[in-house]
Amino acid sequence: MPITVFLLDDHEIVRRGIAQLLESEDDIEVIGEAGTASQALARIPALRPDVAILDVRLPDGEGVSVCRDVRAALERPPACLMLTSYSDDEALFGAIMAGASGYLLKQVAGTDLVGAVRTVAAGGSLLDPNATAVVLERLRKGNAPEDPRYASLSPQEKRILGLIADGLTNRQIGAEMYLAEKTVKNYVSSLLHKLGFARRTEAAVYAADRRRDGQQD
């Protein structure tokens, strides 16, 4: 069975070039593509590719978010290979946090991209060595960039996340913040989606870990 691949890039000529490169290999088949994050989130679950090659910067979002959402939604998600024109430490950190299997610059040689697809399809991890070294150095020094998932939360959602970590129910959070219980429920659903969690217990553990590491606001 060939390795099935989905392509996400907002430039059609880039998608065509990558598709032509991959389709020239006997063991790889491109089964779908998209130019926006919303299109990708609709098509990837239906197509179930082995590998998703995702552009980091998109007109309506980020490839990192697509990676996180797909991995949260599917029992057997594709291996996500991030592809970008820019060496961005925070985007790389975000890709690592989202569970991406690889992160490459678009300047990568065609043979290396083909090899990367095969590597991540087989369950391996492949990250650009130079970019990874920078992020690991920042982690070592204790000044890693903010988790983009947490940064995406509104101030209200961050406060509710803290109260979830305190063990409060939606009704108790509503009383604390003078909000209707239904409104709190909507906030909780939103923050779970942004963090890539299915259950509030996961969010509570995440918030507790942030506190332990001294990252709470």
UniProtKB/TrEMBL annotation:
<dbReference type="Pfam" id="PF00072">
    <property type="entry name" value="Response_reg"/>
</dbReference>
<dbReference type="InterPro" id="IPR001789">
    <property type="entry name" value="Sig_transdc_resp-reg_receiver"/>
</dbReference>
<dbReference type="InterPro" id="IPR058245">
    <property type="entry name" value="NreC/VraR/RcsB-like_REC"/>
</dbReference>
<keyword id="KW-0597">Phosphoprotein</keyword>
<keyword id="KW-0238">DNA-binding</keyword>
<dbReference type="InterPro" id="IPR011006">
    <property type="entry name" value="CheY-like_superfamily"/>
</dbReference>
<dbReference type="InterPro" id="IPR000792">
    <property type="entry name" value="Tscrpt_reg_LuxR_C"/>
</dbReference>
<keyword id="KW-0804">Transcription</keyword>
<dbReference type="InterPro" id="IPR016032">
    <property type="entry name" value="Sig_transdc_resp-reg_C-effctor"/>
</dbReference>
<dbReference type="InterPro" id="IPR039420">
    <property type="entry name" value="WalR-like"/>
</dbReference>
<feature type="domain" description="HTH luxR-type">
    <location>
        <begin position="146"/>
        <end position="211"/>
    </location>
</feature>
<feature type="domain" description="Response regulatory">
    <location>
        <begin position="4"/>
        <end position="121"/>
    </location>
</feature>
<protein>
    <submittedName>
        <fullName>Response regulator transcription factor</fullName>
    </submittedName>
</protein>
<dbReference type="Pfam" id="PF00196">
    <property type="entry name" value="GerE"/>
</dbReference>
<keyword id="KW-0805">Transcription regulation</keyword>
<feature type="modified residue" description="4-aspartylphosphate">
    <location>
        <position position="55"/>
    </location>
</feature>
